[in-house]
Design goal:
It contains three helices and 35 strands. The protein is mainly β.
């Protein structure tokens, strides 16, 4: 699993990039006198795709700049993107091919690496990137040197052999990570339906939690197809203060809670599973987006459903119960907590999942609105309202969540435009075209 050598796309950062990096650093150190916030995104265009960057004034909402920091014909399948507080950004290309991992340093230097997989998820922590591949690989890359520090082939690293990674979650201190394996292979010779805990320094699999498959009435599996014979773990989140590991269970329409300390030692202790559907039913909610937030000294998770009935569930993580259900539309995109506005926000990407005769069916029906979940009081319930966007709203990103109530929203029938909104009152402060069809925004 040896990748090709790292390739420098820009050996020296252009002067404009250096000036902007200095301005951004001064803003972070000195406050609102330098109000530029940068957000990275992936895009696709007629001649390829790449990694883009847009700057927005966090105080006024003005668009400052937009540029393709990397664009190539080989990046026509530009996919997921991540950025770190230190100024690094990374892009995966959803193909097995040359230069399918792209990363940018704080000084503007862009490098590429060819990893032997069809790349999917990417997470950053400090100067490290953790990358997942659809062919079963997990890769740890040093962003400052371009070195492939470590890799795992889950079919070989786990016993029984594992399938492909779904979600990746690096813990706060940056040395260990959680990985979900959602499905078995079609023949059943590589197992999913598990959550794995990796030591990024040693490469050891410290824990392998094989989740209970105790709702056979919700499984699929005709003609020897083993892929959907289990709960379907998707998103994993460790809650340190509450001491709880949360996992979304897509096929069961539920979320699961386990003791975090015990899970790190390979034991699934006090496993509690709760359905997230508005009516409390099983198997049709398809919860696949989560935002963590704190209120009244407690940790909560807002869980968004992609099933036809939609809905959102608020879980008190420490108590392991659902304290509120809201009538949200189906398929809200990745939500974000904006402390400056005391709200969680999500675009209406409109993913719709239904149980078909032989498998889960998925379509998309984006809506021209933003869902805003306001914190009504300390520790109290959320209040849901919608803010119209005029055009279908696919994804969003807070501009500066700790200090600003502004969000950047990807809109348009072809997801090829931006708008900036003040979520306190829903005012749209500006619009502009994107570089092409936007695929993802860095969370």
């Amino acid at each position: 699993m040896t990748p090709s050598r790292t390739k420098d796309v820009n050996r020296a950062a252009p002067a404009s990039w250096r000036r902007r990096a200095v301005a951004l650093t001064l803003w972070m150190l000195c406050g609102p006198a330098f109000a530029a916030a940068q957000i990275f995104f992936s895009f696709r265009a007629a001649d390829g795709g790449g990694l883009g960057r847009i700057e927005v004034d966090a105080q006024t909402g003005d668009f400052i700049a937009q540029e393709a920091v990397y664009s190539a014909a080989t990046a026509r399948a530009a996919f997921k993107v991540a950025q770190s507080p230190e100024g690094y950004a990374a892009l995966t290309v959803n193909e097995r091919g040359p230069e399918n991992f792209v990363f940018r340093a704080p000084d503007g230097r862009v490098r590429t690496l060819s990893l032997p997989d069809k790349l999917d998820e990417v997470r950053l922590h400090g100067r490290r990137a953790l990358v997942g591949g659809e062919e079963g690989g997990v890769y740890l890359v040093r962003l400052d040197t371009g070195e492939l520090e470590r890799s795992w082939k889950l079919a070989e690293a786990l016993h029984p052999p594992g399938r492909r990674p779904e979600d990746l979650r690096i813990e706060r201190e940056g040395r260990r990570a959680w990985v979900t394996l959602q499905k078995d292979s079609k023949k059943g010779d590589r197992e999913g339906q598990r959550v794995v805990y990796l030591d990024l320094d040693s490469g050891a699999a410290l824990a392998d939690l094989r989740l209970p498959r105790d709702r056979a009435d919700l499984h699929y599996g005709r003609d020897g197809d083993f892929r959907q014979r289990g709960p379907g773990p998707e998103i994993v989140m460790p809650f340190e203060s509450a001491g709880v590991l949360l996992v979304t269970l897509d096929l069961y329409g539920a979320i699961g809670f386990a003791d975090l300390t015990e899970a790190r030692q390979g034991r699934l202790t006090n496993w509690t599973v709760l359905p997230t559907a508005p009516d409390g039913s099983w198997g049709a909610a398809f919860p696949d987006r989560v935002a963590a937030f704190a209120a009244g000294g407690r940790e909560f998770a807002l869980v968004l459903n992609a099933g036809a009935a939609g809905g959102a569930a608020v879980a008190d993580v420490a108590k392991r119960n659902i304290v509120q259900r809201l009538a949200a539309g189906h398929g809200l995109s990745t939500p974000a907590f904006v402390p400056a506005a005391r709200a969680v926000v999500a675009a209406s990407g409109g993913k719709l999942k239904r149980r078909g005769a032989e498998d889960v069916e998925k379509t998309f029906h984006p809506r021209a609105e933003i869902a805003v979940f306001d914190l009504t009081e300390e520790g109290g319930p959320l209040a849901l309202r919608v803010a119209p966007t005029g055009d279908p709203a696919h994804a969003l990103r807070p501009v500066a969540p700790e200090s600003s109530a502004l969000i950047l929203v990807n809109v348009g029938e072809s997801a090829d435009a931006w708008l900036v909104m003040d979520i306190r009152d829903g005012r749209i402060l500006g619009r502009r075209p994107a570089l092409g069809r936007v695929e993802r925004l860095a969370p």
